[in-house]
Design a protein that fits this description.
Blueprint (H helix, E strand, L loop, with lengths): L2 H23 L6 E8 L2 H14 L3 E8 L4 H8 L4 E6 H11 L3 E6 L1 E2 L3 E3 L14 E5 L2 H13 L4 E2 L12 E3 L5 E5 L4 H4 L5 E4 L1 H6 L4 H4 L2 E2 L9 E6 L6 H10 L2 H11 L4 E2 L2
Parallel strand pairs: 1-2, 1-3, 7-10, 7-11
Antiparallel strand pairs: 3-13, 4-13, 5-14, 6-11, 6-12, 8-9
Helix pairs in contact: 2-9, 2-10
Length: 270
């Protein structure tokens, strides 16, 4: 027997075995990773479902929750996020006009019809003369609130203002109501000091207000122009990870979760 050959054979076998072990230990495909910004609360809950769906498609989503509408677009523009999912087109348009962001929609997610709430009244028509009404202080949601009040006959707005009227565009105000413009997140806490307020659904839900039962007036659920979407930096819309993110948001699993968890308060926008 050739001892030298045998030893070389054994050594070679050990090297091959080690190489095979290393090869087997390596994952076949490393998951793509992205950072997604959302507003904390119900939108964060939805994003957690999206994360589970996306994981099946090889996408690892890190969710970053914010409490202020103005922060996710700034983080996205700086490159701290790969995408965000919290806003509608009128809001993004106003942000682009004010800050020059190069941010674009990549795919629809949800729509949350805004509503009018009060802890003092049980009927929208019972608003007294001189009532104090809170509305969001950002241009898009403030305009949205005024359009809701106009649609319910409380005020009329100057023609041609579209989705972005301001309190200066109130043409007729028979009850002489007054407006207090506040950060959208603060409106639920201010309700006791107001006769009523127009509150975004995510903040209403966080304050344990039920849009289906507590809203005294609410936007139409059909043809609503305020559908939320995934936003990305311009040029990133067709990146594979973003396409996977859109597909995960627009999945049957997410639709079923919206139906079960929110029972019509939050609807699919796709």
């Amino acid at each position: 027997m050739n001892v030298s050959y045998s030893r070389r054979h054994v050594a070679l076998g050990a090297v091959v075995a080690a190489a095979l072990a290393t090869f087997v230990a390596l994952p076949a495909h490393a998951a793509e990773k992205i950072k997604l910004g959302v507003i904390g609360g119900d939108e964060e809950e939805i994003a957690e479902v999206v994360k589970k769906v996306a994981a099946k498609d090889g996408l690892d989503i890190q969710i970053v929750a914010f409490s202020d509408y103005t922060l996710p677009n700034e983080a996205l523009s700086r490159g701290d996020l790969d995408a965000n999912a919290f806003q509608h087109k009128p809001y993004l348009d106003s942000q682009i006009a004010n800050r020059g962001y190069k941010i674009v929609p990549a795919g629809f997610t949800i729509v949350e019809p805004i509503g009018f709430y009060s802890v003092k009244l049980k009927d929208f028509k019972a608003l007294p003369e001189g009532a104090l009404i809170g509305i969001p202080n950002d241009p898009s949601n403030g305009g949205r609130a005024l359009n809701l009040l106009a649609a319910n006959g409380l005020i009329t707005l100057a023609p041609g203002k579209g989705l972005l009227p301001t309190v200066l565009d109130v043409k007729d105000n028979p009850k002489k109501v007054k407006f207090r413009e506040l950060d959208a997140a603060l409106l639920p806490k201010q309700l006791p000091d107001l006769d009523g307020a127009v509150i975004n659904t995510n903040y209403a839900l966080a304050a344990r207000l039920d849009p289906r039962k507590d809203a005294l007036a609410q936007e139409s659920r059909t043809g609503n122009p305020y559908g939320n979407f995934i936003a990305v930096r311009a040029g990133d819309e067709t990146k594979p990870a973003i396409v996977k993110l859109v597909n995960a948001y627009q999945s049957p699993e997410v639709k079923d979760f919206l139906d079960t968890r929110f029972k019509g308060a939050i609807l699919p926008a796709w």
